[in-house]
Specification:
The complex is a heterodimer of chains A (281) and B (322). Chain A has 7 helices and 15 strands. Chain A is α/β, with parallel strands linked by helices and 281 residues long. Chain A has a single domain, classed as Glutaconate Coenzyme A-transferase (3-Layer(aba) Sandwich). Chain A has a 9-stranded mixed β-sheet, with helices on both faces. Chain A has a two-stranded antiparallel sheet with strand order 5-6. In chain A, helix 1 packs across helix 2 and helix 2 crosses helix 7. The longest helix of chain A has 11 residues. Chain A starts with 18 loop residues before the first helix and ends in a 17-residue tail after the last helix. Chain B has 12 helices and 14 strands. In chain B, strands 1, 2, 4, 6, 10, 11, 12, 13 and 14 form a 9-stranded mixed β-sheet that branches. In chain B, a hairpin with a 5-residue loop joins strand 10 and strand 11. The chains are: A alpha/beta (281), B alpha/beta (322). At the A-B interface, helix 3, helix 4, strand 8, helix 5 and strand 10 of A face strand 5, helix 4 and helix 6 of B.
């Protein structure tokens, strides 16, 4: 294929973009014209990017009560009035979390975390024993409710053995095989009467999906142009992960990069500034 | 009859050991000046139960005012982690005197809604699969049944008795003594107006028998009737209205002022250790005596720098990376 820098639909080349940009692009391509509950950070960048590209009819909502956000400046949290400016309606958290979610009106949520396991269970509560943690984190916020009640969710997370673990220290947000109490045993989420579940985990190395039967995570694609290969993902994952189906990821287009850098996060609150001299080739 | 009070009079309504909750959202429209007065009056052993906690909870933990927290999130978003909260939880209650139990956001908000409705509990289909339901992780277990402000159980599971019989989780109401919110405008009859997203502040105020509302500006009762749809509370739910310009600083007050990134930077740097934070609280809260003193210390230049555009609600040109 002939690449042309002047044509924004063309794909960027090696050394022309960052991992965070590749993550945002990989996730945004999974979004459709649908109702999305947006969390702060990269998920917000992902949703706005999708709205500018493949999903112009997407509706961005936040648990703080914002509906159909079209921010003109990068918000610093989901309740920032940069999010609620020029929206058509304000809800309460009881309505967004307690009415929109349980009646299956939220098609997609995006969640981050400090740890993820092979079933897509997420921990955003603590590192170490919950009762005497090594490090306390902010906690669930709406994450547990999003994971339990959205029609599907995406995981957006760093990729190394500290983040991709065999067992999460605290199961904040339920994935495909999660906990049943009081027995404290791992069961399929359907057996608890739950719908939804994680569709993919988008990491700093690639995109992981879940096997339709075993519900275990496998590598779908790796960021080849960023120097990642499938074996490296295996070596940086704290559980045995199937890489047999892995293929190179499709790089960002110049249009996608231009939107992230110049329109969505020009002050670089979330996505660092691209510096060609610092990018490893 | 007027509901207008001074902040000193209003905060005297809070007693040591009370269960409280605050309005706003993490780093937006939080009743910070009221939290400062709680610290100045030396309130102890408070039990905080708000859904989306933020800078005010971290401050109250760091100043030693809190004994129990039942919340879903404690942090200051992009401005950084809640260092005082993190330290208190990691030290454990024996050292910090603070016991914390995790709710999810919906869990927390349904508990507030139940209190507002005067019902003992509400059901939800959320929470299944999560360690939030793990009985071994109920940090308040030993206090349940003894402390009348705590539910005897964290939650109860039941089968829907009316329709298909799916499992639901019943979450208990909170039992607050005092709610505190910060709004843009209020009038002496207790009508309260929130411009821009009101979050759940209406429910917060309705959940408690006593509600303190600090406002940027007191306007006439008649003025409030010109924008009825923006008024979130009638006087029957409001005990005290206190005029506190910049009463949410350093959090954002839509249409009045933006987050103060310079103040957050100083706060976060000091919150990393107990010693530096104790000095910070003395310097900024105890030694400034009152809100006027606090604003004088901040200085006119800072107050001007964070001023919001009255139309979009924030400051579109302010440097936010400091």
């Amino acid at each position: 294929m002939i690449m042309d820098n002047n044509n924004k639909k063309d794909y960027a080349k090696q050394g022309e973009y960052l991992r965070q940009e590749m993550m945002a692009v990989s996730a945004a391509r999974l979004l459709r014209n649908e109702m999305v509950l947006v969390g702060f950070g990269l998920p917000m960048i992902v949703a706005i990017l999708a709205k500018y590209t493949n999903a112009p009819e997407l509706i961005m909502m936040t648990e703080a009560g914002v509906y159909n956000a079209k921010p003109e400046h990068t918000p610093l949290c989901v309740a920032d009035c940069r999010f609620s400016y020029k929206t058509s309606w304000y809800g309460t958290p009881v309505e967004l979390l307690g009415a929109v979610l349980p009646t299956r009106r939220a098609d997609l949520a995006m969640l981050g975390g400090a740890q993820v396991d092979k079933y897509g269970n997420l921990n955003s509560t603590c590192i170490g024993n919950y009762l005497k943690p090594k490090k306390r984190l902010p906690g669930s916020g709406g994450a547990c409710d999003f994971a339990a009640l959205a029609n599907r969710f995406l995981i957006i997370i760093e990729h190394d053995k500290r983040h991709f673990v065999d067992t999460v220290d605290y199961l904040t947000s339920p994935g495909w095989v999660c906990k049943k109490f009081p027995e404290n045993k791992m069961v399929r989420r359907e057996s608890l009467g739950m719908w939804g579940g994680p569709e993919a985990a988008i990491s700093t190395m690639g995109v992981m999906k879940f096997h339709p039967e075993t519900k275990e995570m496998y590598v779908e694609s790796y960021y080849a142009d960023l120097g990642v290969h499938a074996e490296e993902i295996k070596n940086n994952t704290g559980f045995d992960i199937d890489v047999s189906r892995a293929k190179p990821a499709i790089p960002p287009t110049y249009e996608e990069l231009d939107l992230i850098r110049n329109k969505i996060d020009p002050e670089h609150f979330i996505v660092p500034k691209f510096d060609a001299s610092k990018v490893a080739r | 009859m007027t509901k207008i009070k001074t902040i000193q009079e209003a905060v005297k309504l809070i007693k040591d050991g009370d269960q409280i909750l605050t309005g706003g959202w993490t780093v937006i429209r939080r009743p910070m000046a009221a939290a400062h007065e709680i610290i100045r009056q030396g309130k102890k052993n408070l039990h905080i139960v708000c859904g989306t906690a933020g800078t005010d909870t971290d401050l109250l933990v760091g100043a030693g005012c809190l004994a129990i927290g039942e919340q879903a999130y404690v942090g200051s978003e992009k401005f950084g982690p809640a260092y005082n909260f993190q330290r208190a939880v990691a030290e454990g209650p024996e050292v910090s005197g603070f016991t914390y139990d995790d709710n999810s956001l919906l869990f927390a908000w349904l508990r507030i809604q139940a209190a507002a409705m005067g019902v003992p509990f509400l059901p939800t289909t959320s929470l299944l699969g999560s360690d939030i339901l793990n009985p071994e992780y109920d940090t308040l277990k030993d206090m349940r049944g003894k402390n009348p402000k705590l539910a005897k159980k964290k939650y109860v599971t039941m089968k829907d008795p009316f329709f298909e019989g799916r499992e639901v989780i019943l979450v208990p109401a909170i039992k607050p003594d005092v709610a505190i919110i910060h709004a843009q405008e209020g009038s002496k009859d207790g009508t309260i107006c929130i411009k821009n997203c009101p979050f759940g502040d209406r429910i917060v105020a309705m959940s408690a028998p006593v509600t303190i509302v600090t406002v940027e500006k007191i306007v006439s009762n008649e003025e409030m009737t010109k924008h009825t749809a923006e008024n979130i509370l009638p006087g029957m739910y409001v005990t005290a209205v206190v005029e506190m310009p910049y009463g949410a600083h350093p959090t954002q007050m839509p249409h009045y002022y933006d987050n103060d990134p310079w103040f957050y930077k100083e706060y976060q740097a000091n919150a990393k250790s107990k010693d530096t934070f104790t000095k910070f609280v003395k310097e900024w809260i105890l030694d400034t005596k009152d809100h006027q003193g606090y604003l004088a210390k901040l200085g006119e230049g800072r107050l001007q720098a964070i001023k919001a555009d009255p139309v979009c609600g924030y400051n579109p040109t302010m440097e936010r990376k400091v």
